[in-house]
Design goal:
Length: about 250
């Protein structure tokens, strides 16, 4: 553990204790698991294999999935250049690490699953520990950066797909992709900035009329975003369905 890499962890007594006595901590934790399961099942021999060996076997193999299956099966909405993928099923087996494409793209974010319904026990544990004072200054990537990255990566994917289609009007499709992507990025920026201004206005105790104005603008922008996002998804599905020797009418 190098001080120049993790200076905050070097100063943390609890982390240093675990780092120094990791083997002892492993023996104690496994011993407690063995005794508790053995007492509960009234079968200490079964507990030895179930709570110790079977648990460790499954834990290690599920952990290895992160560097194998999590780089093989899934989608890459945040970065096409990364081999890491997002796979919801793997998230169930790897304590949330299945959202691996996001983790590799925004590695300074303490979360793997960014939506509230994403199965990510590690995220929930870290957040809970922050409320107990055991973790602090949790890093989160702002929503605008995430949304912008998703649009730009999908734009790159769609333009690459259009380039490989010789029978379609490439110029028209490319123009449509670029214009809609740029429009979404601008609207995301406006919406996020307006939301920041609205929160600041509420904090400063601005006049009700000003707050109402902010809320109305947010409502209008939200509707525009939903409409353009729907068009973006339709356009994406249309282009991704196109194959070298067949064509479909564009829904837009």
């Amino acid at each position: 553990m190098e001080a120049k890499v993790v200076p905050d962890l070097i100063k943390n007594r609890l982390v240093q204790f675990q780092h120094k006595y990791d083997f002892l901590c492993m023996l104690i934790s496994n011993g407690i698991a063995f005794l508790v399961v053995g007492w509960f099942l009234d079968d200490y021999m079964g507990a030895f294999f179930l709570a110790c060996w079977t648990r460790l076997f499954l834990l290690h193999h599920f952990t290895w999935f992160i560097n194998s299956l999590a780089h093989t099966w899934g989608d890459r909405p945040f970065c096409q250049e990364q081999s890491a993928v997002n796979n919801y099923i793997l998230a169930l087996l790897t304590f949330g690490e299945g959202y691996h494409n996001y983790h590799h793209t925004f590695c300074n974010d303490y979360r793997n699953g960014i939506r509230w319904f994403h199965f990510d026990p590690t995220k929930w544990l870290i957040w809970t520990l922050s409320k107990c004072g055991l973790t602090k200054e949790l890093k989160r990537m702002d929503s605008y950066t995430i949304q912008k990255r998703m649009v730009l990566e999908r734009k790159r994917l769609l333009l690459g797909r259009v380039c490989n289609l010789w029978y379609v009007k490439k110029d028209e499709l490319e123009k449509l992709v670029r214009e809609l992507a740029e429009k979404l990025v601008v609207e995301f920026a406006e919406f996020n900035q307006l939301r920041v201004n609205y929160r600041l206005a509420r904090k400063e105790g601005r006049e009700p009329d000003q707050l109402k104005f902010f809320k109305q603008k947010l409502s209008i922008l939200r509707k525009n975003l939903k409409s353009n996002w729907r068009l973006w998804k339709q356009l994406s599905r249309h282009i991704l369905k196109l194959k070298p020797f067949e064509s479909f009418p564009c829904p837009i």
